[in-house]
Amino acid sequence: MISIGGMTSTVMASAIMREVPYSIPKLIVSSAASMPAPTATSVRQHNHDAFLVDVGGLNSLLKAQLNRAAGAICGMVNHEIPQPSHAEQKPMVAMSVYGYVENCAPVRQRSLDGKYELIRFHATGMPEITMEKLIEEGFFSGVIDLVPSRSR
Question: CB-based contacts of 129: which residues, under 8 Å, 6+ apart?
Fold first, then answer.
């Protein structure tokens, strides 16, 4: 699944993509990376190839970005990482973490070593929402919610 466009397309596509199962590759190519927000600034500082031109008509810069996007989504589809078989996979446990629980998290992790695979999610918005979606999709045998949020 791929979305190409500006802020409105990005908002709509991200809402739709949240409902699509985790196993389906997703890519958003957006001119919203050029917006003056803290995260957009960080994208621009670390990625000089950020998608900064509008999709108002084809030009050489836009064509180059669209070719990269096509290559990226094709790569995700053609080279999907195979899921481990249930025989070789330990049951997974999700754990929410945040700065003030960092001393507790390693203790919980050691207590599960050998029996379970611990998957940590930072409790600051999108990672936490992703954790909840994967819980709904049945990915985890258990959840350690060290940082319960008010939204649940």
Answer: 18
Q: Where are the beta strands (DSSP E) in the chain?
A: 2-5, 27-30, 92-97, 117-122, 142-145
For the chain, the domains span 2-78, 92-145
Burial classification of residue 51, based on how many CB atoms lie within 10 Å of its CB (0-12 exposed, 13-18 middle, 19 or more buried): buried
DSSP helix/strand/coil, 71: helix
Name residues of the chain where pLDDT drops below 70: 33-56, 80-88, 149-152
Return the amino acid letter for 71.
G
Would you state the pLDDT for residue 82?
A: 66
Closest CA to 140 of 102, 98, 96: 96
Strand, helix or coil at 105?
helix
